[in-house]
Amino acid sequence: MIDGERAAPDPREARDPAGFVELLHALKDRAGLTYRELSARAEALGEVLPRSTVANMLARNSLPREELLSAYVRACGVGPGELERWLAVRKDLAGRCRADGAAAETRDRPAGPGDGPADAPAAARAGAETLRRAEGPPPGTDLPRGPVGDDGPDQAGPRDGGPGDGPGVASGRGERLRTWAARGFVPLVGLLTLAAAATTVVAFLRGPGGDRPREEAAPPAPGPVLLRALHSGLCLNERPGQQSGQVYQVPCAEATVPRYSLVRLGGGRWRIRSDHPDFGAGCAGIPVDLAEQHGAPLVDQKCGKRGSREEFRIEAFDGDAGREAGHRIRSAHSDLCLRVRDASREPWADVVQEACREDGKGQLFGFDPPGAP
Question: Measuring CA to CA, how many Å separate 259 from each of 127, 199, 272, 275, 328?
Answer without folding.
Answer: 70, 47, 10, 5, 20
